[in-house]
Amino acid sequence: MDAAVDHKLFLGGRLKRLRRELALTQTAMAADLGVSPSYLNHIERNQRPVSAQLLLRLADTYDVDLRRLNSPDGHASEAELTELLADPMFQGLSVPRHEILQLADEAPAAADAMLRLYRAFADRRARDRIQAERGGAGLEDTPADRVRDWIQVRQNHFPELDALGEALHGALTANETGENVEILARARLAERHNLTVKVMPAEVMVEWTRRFDPHRRRLLVSETLGPASRAFAVVYQLVLAEHEAELAEMADAADMPDPVSRDLLKVSLTNTLTAAVLMPYGPFQRAAEQTGYDLARLQARFGVGFEQAAHRLTTLSRPTARGVPFFLMRVDQAGNISKRYAAAGFPFSRFGGACPRWRLHSAFRTPGRIITQIIETPPQDGKPGGRWFTLARTVDRQGHDAFSEGADLAVGLGCELRHAHRLIYARGLDLQNPEVTPIGPACRLCHRHPCAERAAPPVDRPLTVDDWSKSVSPYPFSGA
């Protein structure tokens, strides 16, 4: 029998947290669900799996989204704790897996505290190493991590922003003039907001790719931006002009612990809404399904870049019109990870780099070409190992000389193998008996796989303040 089908769900810790949030005793919840208190007690202690019937009763009785019970909900996961304990500083402790599971499920606050402490230690160790090697200034990554985690807990899906994006796209294209969205957005900025757009020479913009001049009511964009990036910059300004209040309200509601994180989240939400205008949910999801998720055709149809289209694919989680649940990762040539998002549960490494056996790193040898690979990850969070269909391609960094060293980034996109038949890139492959490459999500854990003898890529380094907005903004001004 297929492992995914035969897999039993042990959700005791999460069920217990739900019961406590509802302020119910075991007896009261058992009565609501039509089971005995002793049976519910066994489930909460992970001595019995949760049945499908009980999950349906939970959803019906307490109006619970079942995905919430089967997701980490922002708490430290087994994978993160296992990776943490694989650090050489814990050598010799040999913490058994059942204790890790018990900590993650039954003491989530303690697990989070342990994870937060380790992050602070790992960041300090990374800063000390970088300072010793390069004499660099201190590095901080807390705001970017907080924003990225907040987005990932919501599986990178924001229905309210999708609705606003579809409405604004409809308003722009209502007259069916045939003009592209950038031209229509420029006209709306001029007519409704008295704001003009001007393309400026690179030597004037210096390191800026876009800049808003509030005194002259002008948006200045660099000539180095390609058509897709320029369109994104223009629509971004239109989104701020028309929906800044809603975006600010969402950022405030997230209750970020510091102003920098809150402002960074607002930037990310603005990027998300901009993408929802350029690639409105309904038309984009239908086009993706009709074309077999052909990124080149999606780019051409919506006038966007490869990375913009790829990232939009990770957001298609509308219950009535779901797309393939993709994950995405972006790295530079040194192996530093600057972006990772997922609509599915790909086991991203928190403290390590991507496994070198994943062809994401090989994309730099074939710039601009899509390469595919089927990978297998080890068991995580009590779930069996997964198989994933992946593709990777390089994109150019906007604002860099195309021939300068290190100017390219590689974007990796993937989904569970069971969805691969829906992708044009998998046609002609034997998906029933595929050639699979085992990888580890973090190289410290790769002792399970043959790549253990290979040198690990550089660590997923903490980001500088200058990196923050680029690292968490889902849709950079990339014209690739």
Automatic annotation (TrEMBL):
Matches recorded under SMART domains: HTH_XRE
Q: Which Gene3D superfamilies does this chain map to?
A: lambda repressor-like DNA-binding domains
Q: One GO molecular function term?
A: DNA-binding transcription factor activity
Keyword annotations of the record: DNA-binding, Transcription, Transcription regulation
Source organism superkingdom: Bacteria
Q: Gene Ontology cellular component?
A: cytosol
Residue ranges occupied by any HTH cro/C1-type domain in the UniProt entry = 15-69
Q: Which family does it belong to?
A: Belongs to the short-chain fatty acyl-CoA assimilation regulator (ScfR) family.
Cross-referenced PANTHER family: HTH-TYPE TRANSCRIPTIONAL REGULATOR, HTH-TYPE TRANSCRIPTIONAL REGULATOR SUTR
For this entry, the protein name equals: DUF2083 domain-containing protein
Organism of this sequence? Brevundimonas goettingensis
Classification of source organism:
Bacteria, Pseudomonadati, Pseudomonadota, Alphaproteobacteria, Caulobacterales
